[in-house]
Amino acid sequence: MNVSFVKQIKNLEREVLLKSVELDDDGDDFQFELDDFDTNDEIIAVAPRCVRCNTCVGECPVNAIEPANIFRMAKITDKCVKCEICVQSCPVSAIKLISNEVIYNSEDEREVIEYNLANVSCPHRVVRMNSISIDYSVDNNWDDCANLCPTNAFTLEFKEFFDDLNMDVGIELIEDELYPYVNEKMCIGCGACREISLNSFAIELDRYLGPIRHSRFIDINYDSCVNCFLCEENCPTGAIELIDGEVVLDNDKCIRCVECTNHCPVGALERVEMK
């Protein structure tokens, strides 16, 4: 996805003026001035294809994701530190990393601010189903499980289907009633069916989540560091310490987020792409 659009400066000026009035400013002496700028930030967003598996919720190291349910998708909150672990962990790639570039050039005759949004490729973790089983003796919302399965591995079948497979489900099946079935060759182990089940004992899933694949690292300029401790105080995982006046980074704990780099007042910390 690559999207570009512009916003008229006069519209932005009007919005800022309205805000100034809200702040008890009469606006009579209001003057709008904007210097040239070119900024680039990251956005992490959940796409409509979210299957409500809540894998992202369990893997987020800073509890920045509101869990999904049958009626709504997962939601990235303001607590997000842009570590991108949720992007890597989503079994169906429903969480997107987006580059958001905003440009203003005062010499542009159009008098606009330009916005450019583009998908950023990100490495993905391995998500694999080891085994899955259904307890047919319990009641459950099997329709929801089938509707949200991203690979159609979870289906509802009649008694005849199980008879043809010579499959013993542990209960006596009734004609003309639908029963859940999981095609293990198609199941990817996302866990959506288990997560949205009203009966927590209805589905048992054993799956494998591979290691996080870091594509960035934190570069430390020791000469610029002023020992202010802001990186240590703001690191969400305790990966940074100042020991004997020197920044010590634990790469095993570091999630490659932007908290230390954003809080460093002298730019001694930088998140760098691996080549």
Summarize this entry quickly.
The chain has 275 residues and is of the alpha+beta class. The protein is built from eight helices and 14 strands.
Could you name the key traits of this structure?
alpha+beta, Alpha-Beta Plaits, two-stranded antiparallel sheet, 8 helices, 14 strands, 29% strand
Characterize the structure shown:
It is a single chain. The chain has helices spanning 9-22, 55-59, 85-89, 142-148, 159-164, 192-196, 230-234, 259-263; strands at 2-8, 37-46, 65-66, 75-76, 95-104, 112-119, 127-134, 154-157, 179-182, 203-209, 216-220, 240-243, 246-249, 269-273. The strands form 6 sheets. The protein has a 4-stranded antiparallel β-sheet with strand order 1-6-5-2. Strand 12 and strand 13 (246-249) form a beta hairpin. The chain starts with a strand and ends with a strand. 19% of the residues lie in helices and 29% in strands. The longest helix is centred in the first third of the chain and has 14 residues, at 9-22. The chain is extended and about 80 Å long. The protein has 3 domains: 2-119, Alpha-Beta Plaits (2-Layer Sandwich), CATH 3.30.70; 131-209, 2-Layer Sandwich (Alpha-Beta Plaits); 216-273, Alpha-Beta Plaits. The protein has 8 helices and 14 strands. The protein has 275 residues and is an alpha+beta fold.
Average pLDDT taken over every residue: 91
Order of helices and strands: EHEHEEHEEEHEHEHEEHEEHE
Runs with pLDDT <50, length 5+?
A: none
> Helix fraction?
10-25%
The major sheet is characterized as:
4 strands, antiparallel
- How many domain modules? 3
CATH topology heading of the largest domain: Alpha-Beta Plaits
**SS elements, strand count:** 14
> How far apart are the first and last residues' alpha carbons, in Å?
24 Å
User: What top-tier CATH class of the largest domain fits best?
Assistant: Alpha Beta
**Strand proportion:** 25-35%
CATH architecture of the largest domain: 2-Layer Sandwich
